[in-house]
Amino acid sequence: MAHVTFVHGIANKPPPADLLRIWREALANASDALPLGDLGVTSELVYWADLLYEKPDDNVAAHEGVLENTPEALDGGGGAPPPTPRSAEEAAFLEALRGRMTSLSDAEIEAAPPAIPGSPQGTLERVPLPWFLKKPIMNTFLRDVHHYLFDVEFAPPGRTPMPIQRTIRERFVTALGSPQVTRPHVVISHSMGTVIAYDCLKRVAECSGVDGLITLGSPLGLDEVQDKLQPGWSRPDGFPHDKVAGGWTNLYDRLDPVCGFDPELANDYRRGSAAVVADIAVQNDGAWRHSTTKYLRQPRLIAALREMLQIR
Amino acid sequence: MNGEDQDVEAVRARAKSLLAALRGVCGDDEVREAKACVERLRDQRDYELMGRLAEAVSRRDPKDATNRRLYAQYLIDTGHVTAAVDLLQPLARRVPKGDKELAEVTGLLGRAHKQIFFDAGDKSAVGARDALKHAVAMYRAEYERDRKNTWHGVNLVALLTRGRAFGSRVAQDLDARTIAQEVIANLDERDPWRLPTLAEASLGLGDWDIVDRNVHEYVTAKGTTAFQVASTLRQFTEVWDLEREGERGRALVDMLRAKLMRLPGGVVRLEPAELQRLRQQEVPYEGRLEAILGTYGAQTYQWWKTGVERAASVAAVRQKMGGRMGTAFLVRAGDLQREPADELLVLTNYHVVNAESAHGGIRPEEAEVVFEAADANKVYGVAELLWSSPPERHDASLLRLGAPVTGVAPLPIATTLPVIDDAARVYIIGHPGGRDLAFSFQDNELIDHEGAPTGKPGTEGVCRVHYRAPTEGGSSGSPVFNSRLWQVIALHHMGGKIGVRKLNGKEGTYGANEGIAMHSIVAAMKG
Known about the structure:
The complex is a heterodimer. By secondary structure, chain A is α/β, with parallel strands linked by helices. Chain A has two domains: 2-63 and 160-309, Alpha/Beta hydrolase fold, catalytic domain (Rossmann fold, 3-Layer(aba) Sandwich), CATH 3.40.50.1820; 72-154, no CATH class. Chain A is built from ten helices and eight strands. In chain A, the strands form two sheets. Chain A has a six-stranded parallel β-sheet with strand order 2-1-5-6-7-8, sandwiched between helices. A two-stranded antiparallel ribbon of chain A has the order 3-4. Chain B is globular. Helices cover 46% and strands 18% of the residues of chain B. Chain B has a domain at 312-527: Beta Barrel (Thrombin, subunit H). Chain B has a six-stranded antiparallel beta barrel with strand order 8-9-10-13-12-11. The A-B interface holds A 1, 17, 21, 24-25, 28-29, 31, 33, 35-43, 60-61, 64-66, 180, 182 and B 222, 294-296, 299, 414, 416-419, 421-424, 451-453, 482-485, 487.
């Protein structure tokens, strides 16, 4: 038996059961199919979108990695406003992170002409999408990452505010310690989920260990993120060796805007100064390269997961 | 059990109690409820119970036109078409003009005649020609009375197109293509059958690109059910005869089968000759698979083709000079941890073949095995019963055949049982009830099993698996496959029973099929 814990990334998501099903389907529909259920591999999802969004997205199909015509289909759903910094440190963090996605000012974005079919706006930018799609993605990315890394007390309207980082950490730690977990146990995280997984495995003492870690489209290479993972992270000893018994495989697409300009992690998360993270460059299809399901269908992801789960 | 399956069981249970009530003393409320229940049984294709309840309601309220029409539908769906015509004709005369029931009754009369026409071996025979003429007249009358009767319209399109292909000169004043365009224009967005009707009407336009696009919209729509796809498949094969319309038509039908099998409750039945043809059929190009079946179209189709290949390894166990006794399947000795590892053996139920002829089974020397999807004419005798375990344990018999099996691949055996969750399905390939030569690919919901990580076998060394299909049981000795890899997880031994005790110490009973996990059979063989 074996177990997989998934951790999702930025933006609003469908209900947990639907999201887990979509991700498992993506693995099962890969060219080298890996149907976890058939293989006796149990799985669970660390779901946290409910902490930041009022209700799950009921447009489940938008999350299947097929459509690319709405913010929901591009990890930008939920209508998150840009975060308001509470300190100079937060302001600097947000400005730097924003700079990873665009060099345009808010005024220039507002003044951008409407999209011309066949010639998407922002082609020269990191995210070659029209601004009506790109802006919600950017706002969502900034808001969600900021609220986690600065442990902002927050709740959607009508609910009691909760410390975002502490609450998500609790959920992650609970999932990893669940009696349902069997070994080998692999964590597959995407986008901001990679930050959560790393943060817990490296910096939360009571977190249980795992046998393998997979990160997809991770912003962990960004200096701004690394700065917020201290104490705990350091370049020569960044690998979470106390909690990750096996390997760490990191998949990225060079056109995935969330990975930014620094998609490779081996140089930044060393073990005894040795580069041990397996960075794998892949090419997702379509315009939106950050899609979870596109990463999950990659043959090299399947191969890495098979090896970690010890499935022939 | 998921919500849909619970509903199916609940309707069946209620139908049975209403049936008992109608036979005794009951009030108007129960009669009213029974009438609604007949329709629900129709929707879940529970024809046997539907017919009994419709009969009981008819005795209470013989003038209820809707119930009589549903009774006629039961007769058609169970092959009693002329009896249905005899019931419907006076009903059509009796229902007042303007009553919406009249469109249904007339349409059903059209359907009965249509069935007679398409069932006829000789389409030029007088009886067939008359049936076509009547069917066209029925559908035409209702369609021309109200263009919103799109299901009458789409049937009219099919009959005119197909009838003319057979040389019929019926209703020469009508143009099928024009009617198809009208039907498409008049479809109601709220009609749950809008997409299936749109897909079928597209066939009448004779433009494959439009057909593909509309079938795609239909099969990828949220909420499309196995019942709808099965109905469309029946129309496409029996009425439109698309499998004889060239490669493109054959591929479309096969893609619909693939889609149907991916839907909860999907059942596909195929004659051995059809299976043989499908094994040879060329795979449609990937672009068309995706255009029709969606993003995972190529994978869905490949999965279905693998299932078709697996069927070639499923055999009928027959009694010499007698009938079919059950199902068996080919396995590699090494996968059962036996030597010589490459020898091909056959596994079936003890209650199908055993040394003592016990539990209704036959002795090995009386048995013959035929892989009908591979070569229906090649009959294998049984040389030796290598191992067996009685019904209260593994209900299994391992057979060595009298001659080496060639041209058939052994089925792969799963090393573990699937995880049980809301989405877990298993598939059976077999011959349900032994009623005909058809293979049945049957989707089942995996309910429970006694395997790892949490299972607690009720009998030491025996690991049972429970699964259920909405309508079918049977298939003793069939392989039970996991849902994506088509690996055998269990040997099916008990089907469609109600009152099966739940597994793992849980209280109560339910309706379930039961199989024995392959890993526990392999362990028992090792001793």
